[in-house]
Specification:
about 170 residues, 4-stranded antiparallel β-sheet, 5 helices, about 35% helix, about 15% strand
Length: about 170
């Protein structure tokens, strides 16, 4: 699948085929794509938790009200920010940098045939703190990404809106 197709065919999937195991080589490609994202001064202020443990996934659904799709997803990838890795002129750009990593992750998963759903955590500090406790981490959970084989094919919701573009020639 080329990049243009992946962008246009990607959807937020909330229903997954149960029991599907994502091969390690596919997960590696997905994580590698995430880590190829641009970041301020190449600080790469992120870390990733790959979770397939059903008990931990259930804890996520208790900590975050919009993650019930994790009950059927094959895995969750929690993308966490590491503001401690950015200082000086690039300090504070970690949320944007993590967002770029998340989008790369979503597109690579789509290109490999998987469905995903991006569930935001930061800046909702109640979600952040609950997830930090579950993961035993000081890094800041930016999102939980559900991943698996889609059991639904929702229609596209995004579209080009020329009213939101200003050209300055």
């Amino acid at each position: 699948m080329n990049c243009s197709d992946a962008i246009r065919e990607r959807r937020s999937i909330r229903k997954y085929k149960e029991g599907v195991i994502i091969p390690d080589e596919d997960m590696h490609k997905i994580l590698e794509a995430a880590m190829m994202a641009p970041s301020a001064r190449n600080t790469r202020p992120w870390e990733f938790f790959v979770v397939t443990n059903r008990e931990i996934l259930e804890k996520f659904t208790e900590a975050h009200p919009y993650t019930t799709m994790l009950r059927t997803a094959s895995a969750a990838i929690v993308v966490c920010g590491r503001p401690d890795l950015q200082e000086g002129v690039c300090a504070g750009y970690w949320p944007q940098d993590c967002g770029a990593a998340i989008e790369n992750l979503l597109l690579q998963a789509k290109a490999l045939g998987y469905g995903t759903c991006w569930c935001g955590c930061y800046p909702s500090m109640d979600r952040v703190e609950k997830l930090q406790e579950i993961l035993h981490t000081q890094s800041i959970p930016v999102s939980i990404v559900a991943i698996g084989e889609a059991a639904e094919t929702p229609a596209a919701r995004g579209y080009f809106d020329p009213a939101r573009v200003t050209y300055l020639n």
